[in-house]
Amino acid sequence: MSLPFRGQTTVSLSWNELTGAVGDSATVLPVVVAVAVLTELSLPVMLVWFGVFQVVWGLYYGVPISVEPMKAFAALVIAGTISTGELVVAGLLLAVVLLALGTTRSLGTVNRYVDDTVVRGVQLGVALVLLETGVGLGLSDPLLVAVAVGVVAAIALLGYSGQSAFAVFVLGAGLALAETGVPTPAVPAVDAMFMLPTMTLSVRTAEAVLAQIAVTVGNAALATSVLLADYFDRDVSADQLSNSMGLMNLVAVPFGAFPMCHGSGGVAGKYAFGARTSGANLILGAGYVLTAFLAVGVVAAYPTALLGVILVLIALQLGWTGVSRTDDLVVVAAIGVLGVLVNLGLAFVLGVLLQQLRARL
What we know:
Number of helices: 16
Order of helices and strands: EEHHEHHHHHHHHEHHHHHH
Radius of gyration: 19 Å
Number of strands: 4
């Protein structure tokens, strides 16, 4: 089924749009479930917000744009480096920064100071934090981890290695369902939507914002703008994307949402799995909301060892992205290692300073 939209775009609800939606959810759901299991945030509430903004931005931009969790924030809160209260403040601070950058059309200037090497280094640092956390969780049940590794190997042999994290996620969901039984519909708890009382401002909050902004500017704004032009011939500027990310986080983070962004990986995932219209966003948005009303009992029973495997797989994919797309591996590795040994915020600042120093020599 296809519907006209804005006189220039067709919204399709075809099979390709459904598979495209699945391609985007493969990296979102494992991260969000891990956050729900290991923090105070509510999975149903987070899923509702992801569903709402999948639909909102899909219709606004008229393309299968992504709405994903911010990976640096996810790594830090899953690892316990920042608290839920610090995450809320960090999400709001970053929202204000993104709105300021987008409104003043400053991303071109920022990009001159935060080059690709710094972004890749921070990506590697985030990957190493996720890897460390994932290994720790996996040690809770080595036998189950061995089963998951077998699933990953089988998926890879079938030629679908990119879906290995999602396959392990489905395995964990199946085990959780086996323990809890078929879930009954439940309305998300209203009190889980009010996160303002938990807000905490600290040095770690600022460090988290610095770490995330490098990835957001490079990956969620600049790279996503390029992909939307390449894949869908749509002129969406990085500043527009910055504004929409700032707006949705300013609106949603105080009410239980996990900080969200437009990731280029999600756009590529939707496109690779067949999505060509914002119909994929409508399907995925509806799917998230439906899951939110069924997921309460299942998430509590989700095996943490499998979350560890999922985090390791995501870390390996993110880390490979960081090291494989740079010509300055030494600097990228140095920023990444510093990020996991000290903190990502300091690694980001030192990376920018090093870049500027080298440019002047």
